[in-house]
Design brief:
By secondary structure, the protein is an alpha/beta fold. It contains 15 helices and 14 strands. It is globular and about 60 Å long. The two termini are 37 Å apart. The relative contact order is 0.18.
């Protein structure tokens, strides 16, 4: 259960969660991806009826509980945290949990005991009691979730485990935050939505890119009307991971690479989709209604393998089907368009694109630049740094945050724990988690159907029509 993503400097971002994958989990996910584009018409009844992929997003199961939109956490003076997965991601994020006032790390879980012990040493060094360790096997996380002294569970494991761990945490009465993506199948996304509503526990996709300094500045500028009426946005995960996916020590197993043998579409949409969805108030006045995806041939990984891997390496048994470059267009209820890209298999400088356009101008990132009227003329890009006055209060309060990825990780953890501690409504919820992750199965289904549009479910069941707060928060009175 080990995350093996290094803390890249600056704005580079890779939240891939490395770790070993057991035969049982590999069989489960391999069996499941055949239905990745399928929806369920009878969730919660014990009889899951599959629909054709083209109708996957159309089914909206009857609500089993009450909406979690606008539901605050229970106020508590200390937030007791359990962490599952202590590789490079979880093992570094623990430092940030320990750096936030009012947070106690009480339990740790990883199948590699050395990693759990190293993380426990950090807890003790921070002046907290030694945490309980769960290292028996890959199911030991269930014991962590069952503890009575855990309020919040943080999951930083390979994608194969995310759904089951989030589900287990909620059923045990815990709020849960999961690294990207939160699940790999549409029926799993619906189950997480239903469980969150039934258990009254928040289930969140911990999308740290939404807390980036540029992203939060653009968010506030957009909401203040500087871009005029919003029309379009774009986000991506274009990051050359070829060397890392074939490195036996980086992911501690082939789990990340194996997903390229299972799905054709966008495997990692969250970093790009999350911030743009926030700009456009998706699930808070607008809704993502459909996605159309196309993809290139899958050549990059096989070519890299041919040039770099020795004969007899286990990777030679793999057949890659995931498109080297996936491009998706998401249409919203208001007619806006979001372009998503995914490419981890070819040479490309790191980019999340991160753009937003409206009737008065446009912002584009990588590199950051802006053009809005009346500030700019003659078709020449302006200096985005000149708009620092629009920085979110979190970045004004924490000008030099600790941790990796330019400080966005700390800002995310600080704000999340602040919301739990003060009993506030979280900045995003299970509906956002499901929406930001839905392109994983639906882009696969669209590519298989030669680009046929796929309906994106209304995970909010109509609540999206109501305007409500999100990432553009006000500084709370403490």
């Amino acid at each position: 259960m080990n995350d093996a993503a290094p803390q890249n400097p600056g704005r580079d971002q890779d939240n891939d969660n490395g770790g070993s994958v057991s035969r049982r989990s590999a069989l489960r996910t391999t069996a499941g991806v055949a239905g990745a584009g399928l929806g369920l018409t009878a969730l919660g009844t014990g009889t899951a009826a599959a629909q054709p992929a083209g109708a996957a997003g159309a089914a909206v199961p009857e609500r089993q509980g009450r909406t979690m939109a606008g539901v605050p956490f229970e106020r508590r003076s200390t937030v007791r945290v359990g962490i599952i997965g202590l590789g490079n991601r979880g093992g570094s994020m623990i430092d940030l949990f320990l750096a936030v006032p009012g947070v106690q790390v009480v339990a740790l879980c990883d199948t590699v005991r050395d990693k759990a012990q190293a993380a426990a040493a950090k807890v003790v060094k921070a002046g907290q009691p030694a945490p309980a360790l769960y290292t028996k096997d890959e199911d030991d996380y269930e014991q962590l979730c069952a503890r009575g002294d855990v309020d919040f569970v943080y999951v930083a494991t390979p994608w194969d485990f995310h759904f089951e761990m989030a589900k287990t945490a909620m059923l045990a009465g815990k709020h849960v935050g999961v690294e990207c993506p939160i699940a790999m199948r549409l029926d799993e996304l619906w189950q997480l939505v239903d469980l969150s509503e039934r258990t009254r526990r928040h289930c969140m996709q911990l999308e740290n890119c939404a807390y980036g300094k540029n992203e939060m500045r653009v968010l506030r500028m957009a909401h203040a009307g500087l871009f005029g009426d919003l029309l379009h946005g774009a986000g991506a995960y274009n990051h050359d991971l070829r060397g890392l996916m074939f490195d036996p020590d980086y992911y501690e197993g082939p789990w990340r690479r194996l997903w390229h043998t299972r799905l054709r579409g966008d495997l990692y949409p969250n970093h790009g989709f999350g911030p743009v969805a926030n700009y456009l108030d998706i699930n808070r006045g607008d809704r993502a209604v459909s996605i159309t995806s196309i993809g290139t041939p899958a050549l990059g990984l096989a070519q890299y393998r041919e040039e770099n891997m020795p004969p007899g390496d286990a990777s030679w048994k793999e057949t890659y089907i995931s498109s080297d470059r996936t491009i998706s267009l998401v249409q919203t209820a208001k007619g806006r368009v979001v372009r998503l890209e995914h490419d981890v298999s070819t040479p490309h400088p790191y980019s999340r694109i991160n753009s937003l356009g409206g009737t008065r101008g446009v912002f584009e990132d990588y590199p950051e630049r802006i053009y809005i009227e009346p500030d700019h003329t003659n078709d020449r890009w302006g200096d985005f740094g000149a708009y620092a006055e629009w920085d979110h209060w979190l970045w004004k309060e924490h000008a030099n945050p600790p941790g990796g990825h330019g400080g966005m990780d700390y800002i995310m953890v600080f704000r999340l724990m602040q919301c739990v501690r003060l009993g506030l409504v979280p900045d995003f919820d299970v509906y956002d988690a499901a929406t930001w992750t839905a392109p994983v199965p639906l882009s696969h289904a669209s590519i298989k159907a030669n680009g046929k549009p796929q309906r994106i479910p209304d995970f909010t069941r109509g609540e999206w029509k109501k305007s409500r707060p999100g990432m553009d928060s006000e500084k709370p009175a403490t």
